[in-house]
Amino acid sequence: MRILLIGSGGREHALAWALNALAGKEELFIAPGNAGTAEIGENTALDILDFPAVGKFVIDHRIELLVVGPEQPLVAGIRDYFEREEVLSKVPVFGPSAKGALLEGSKAFAKEFMKRHHIPTARYREITEENAEEGFAFMDTLSPPLVIKADGLAAGKGVLIINDHKKAREELQSVLSGRFGPAGRKVVIEEFLPGTEMSVFAFFDGSHYVLLPTAKDYKRIGEGDSGPNTGGMGAIAPVPFAGADLMRKVEERIVKPTVKGLISEGIDYRGIIYFGLMIVDEEPYVIEYNCRFGDPEAEVIIPLIRDDLPELIRQTALGRLDSSKALRFEGAAATVILASGGYPGNYEKGKPIRGLSEVNDSMVFHAGTRRDDTGQLISNGGRVLAVTSLAPTLAEALKTSLRNAERIEFEGKYFRRDIGQDVLK
Ligand code: AMP
Ligand code: GLY
After folding, report:
1. pLDDT tens, position by position, 129-168
2. Whose CA is nearest to atom 16 of ligand 1?
3. What is the position in ligand 1's atom list of the atom closest to the CA of 195?
4. 110 alpha carbon to ligand 1 midpoint, in Å?
5. Reduced to 3 states, what is the DSSP secondary structure of residue 330?
6. CA-CA to 94 of 20 to 30 Å: which in 116, 191, 291, 406?
7. Could you tell me the domains of the chain?
8. Whether the model pTM is above 0.90
9. What is the pLDDT of residues 218-228, one digit of tens each?
10. Are 327 and 213 in contact (CB under 8 A)?
């Protein structure tokens, strides 16, 4: 089957690795991809937001399935574009419509959706410059820390958590006057939920859903969850504390009302629903929705699944998901991200990467890599590689990933040694 996969991160390398079972090397195209995906399929330098160019590639290369990794093309309406264009309308697309992607693309939309469908989430107000006073008044009713979120996509940087009221007022003012650009002209102010985070993923084909293994990612740059937020410095799956009782609550109070809500509102959604949850005293709340696989969560979930993942992706895109069986997986998976020194601030690219042949018992997914003119593998992003291991226990998986993380070398290499340690205790 001829497949075009959109994206260029570790998530896409993991997806390409899985899709390889359905598409041979000559049949899998990745736009734009990275040095890892180039070993599995053919990279193509398309602008993923230029839908006419993507459409032309799909026609020219007789693509039979489009799999969209990142959120930007979904929020910008790639699925809607394919449905509108007659020659493309028969190509199944894995990923929701622009309306569905608003669950991620607009915090205000997601909050209103949760309110309409009685899905547990933090109390909030939606604020623009016009009703800023209401925002200040709502803040006064909350005890710190205060949470301010830019409405639109802000590449993980649109959330402020502030410890005192005076500072929060100043920040609100600055965000409303454009500090995050247009994404921040509308904000959500919400109550802080103290608890433990975890992520739940479901394939949803418009009518049926299937749950994937749970995962936990480590967003902060520093050990002990310190320092600024990143795209994610590591992940584990499944989450050891997500027992049957908690998962029953998650499914009944969150997953089912979400899919019912999407159906009842007539929202075209065939892809992944990512539920970012906060567990407060054993009670789950939704912190955020995303409309795609998490990255680096994909690098642990995908290798863990024992079922035919490419077939599940195809069925989801076609609206023919078999939801009668739970997915099978055994043991645990861990991934440790090797990042460029300085990330998530300024960092240098182009550092030669060595030692990949020394790795054993781990899979290395490329996140930000490319080959230079001489064919040398070099770093090409903040997050460079994801070192994933599978083992009967999480402790063993973590140990293997850390051992191999040491063996790979590039100038400025940085990684967290404490991924997963909090849930091992
Ligand atoms: P988001 O982009 O909405 O996932 O927010 C980024 C991070 O901020 C989350 O992963 C949480 O760690 C934190 N966060 C967001 N909203 C809240 C909240 N209401 N209470 C506590 N932490 C939050
Ligand atoms: N790892 C967080 C995300 O993909 O949004």
Report:
1. 888 888 888 999 998 899 998 887 766 667 888 998 888 8
2. 287
3. 21
4. 14
5. coil
6. 116
7. 3-97 (3.40.50.20), 123-191 (3.30.1490.20)
8. yes
9. 999 999 999 98
10. yes
